[in-house]
Amino acid sequence: MWPFWRKPVGARRYLFGPVPSRRLGRSLGVDLTPLKTCTLNCVYCQLGHTPKTTMERRDYVPIADVLRELKEWKRSKGIADVITLAGSGEPTLHLHFGQVLKFVREELCLPSVLLTNGTLLHLDDVCRQAVLADVVKVTLSAWDEDSFAALHRPHSSVSFRQLMDGAMKFRAVFGGTFWVEVFLVEGINTSEEALRAIRDCLVPLHPDKIHLNTAVRPAAENGVAAVGEGMLRHALGVMGPLAEITASVPREPSGDGKTLSEVELFGLIERHPCSVEDLASVFGLAHSRVIEELEPLLRQQRIIPVERNGIVYYALPVLEK
Ligand code: SF4
Fold first, then answer.
1. Cross-strand partners of 138
2. 35 pocket-lining for ligand 1 (C-beta < 6 Å)
3. Which of 112, 137, 259, 261 could lock 104 by a disulfide, CB 3.0 to 4.6 Å apart?
4. Would the pLDDT of 275 be above 90?
5. How far apart are CA 160 and CA 163, in angstroms?
6. 272 in any annotated domain
7. DSSP per residue over 202-239, as a string?
8. In which band, very low, low, confident or very high, does the pLDDT at 256 lie, cut at 50, 70 and 90?
């Protein structure tokens, strides 16, 4: 028995957002897997539990349909600063994710970003396709097999050693921008020794930036707590000058009388539960307008509020299979 998010009818199937990002600007998401298809089952995952971790690479969604949606998005004069492969699972599990990266570069003339957990980078084919991205961000929040298992609860054939080997192999051939995300979870990787050990793992990868993140959104495990600002600042000091704390920056709402697009809203919160502030930023609306638009959807229970660290996020209802 596991919770799954209801698919909104009529929403774009593979695109979501754009999601505002301090580093990337407006990031249009491309989702190449059904919820939730992943090699890992991270305790902090905002998508909930992975029902069954997998290493099987296949055509989870038809690439031709994804490219068609991207073409339609371009035709409808969609605006984004980057196109990001992310969403309902690990994008490199898709056999042909590189075709999307190629299309983004050649047809959309936009930079592409690949967000990956890095567990498949040791595979030649994955490595060959991943180098087509302009920016690759890999998660590296552990420092040995035990910490890796505690944080990520991986598929039985995934190991920390393999992750490191794959990341090293990829880094040696990748000429684009390489970022590493360190996801901090209180009680697992926040001790001084843990932070130093993670930093030592990062050094040979020569990241262009180290992004420090924490569980600000609802996580797979109830007990997973976001670390405080003090810990983030402490980690910043340990990680050195390449490190920065990642956080979304709200844009000024336009308040120009626009309304919330239900289709876009459902497509977004299905993969990325959002606060009123997030939604105001994504849709360029005043906070009061967002609240007004959410109210009937809440009443009809088509969306649900989920409280996390004093902030309310809106998500699609969780159903039981
Ligand atoms: S956080 Fe990413 S890598 Fe971890 S389980 Fe969720 S989708 Fe997979």
1. 116, 180
2. no
3. 112
4. no
5. 5
6. no
7. HGGG--SEEEEEE--S--SSTT--PPPHHHHHHHHHHH
8. low
- CA of residue 132 to ligand 1 center, whole Å: 22
Say if ligand 1 is within 6 A of residue 47 CB: yes
Question: What domain range is 181 assigned to?
Answer: 23-247
Secondary structure of residue 44 in the 3-state scheme: coil
DSSP-assigned letter for residue 178: E
- The neighbouring-strand residues paired with 3 are 320
Question: Residue 316 has what DSSP assignment?
Answer: P
Calpha distance 285→154 (Å, rounded): 40
| Helical (H) or strand (E) element with 293 | helix 287-299
Residues 106-110, mean pLDDT to the nearest whole number = 95
In terms of DSSP bridges, do strands 318-320 and 3-5 run parallel, antiparallel, or are they unpaired?
antiparallel
CA of 139, closest atom in ligand 1: 3
Q: Is the CB of 316 under 6 A from ligand 1?
A: no
Q: Quick one: tokens of 98?
A: 């590189």
pLDDT digits (tens, 9 = 90+) for 205-248: 999 999 999 987 777 777 787 888 889 989 999 999 999 998 44
The answer to whether 100 and 66 have CB atoms below 8 angstroms apart is yes
Which residue, judged by its Cα, is nearest atom 1 of ligand 1?
A: 45
For helices 262-271 and 276-283, angle between their N-to-C axes, nearest 10 degrees? 130
Residue 271: inside a domain, yes or no? Answer: no
> Which among 219, 227, 120, 127 has a CA at the least distance from the CA of 182?
227
| Total number of domains constituting the chain | 1
Please tell me the predicted confidence (pLDDT) of residue 258: 63
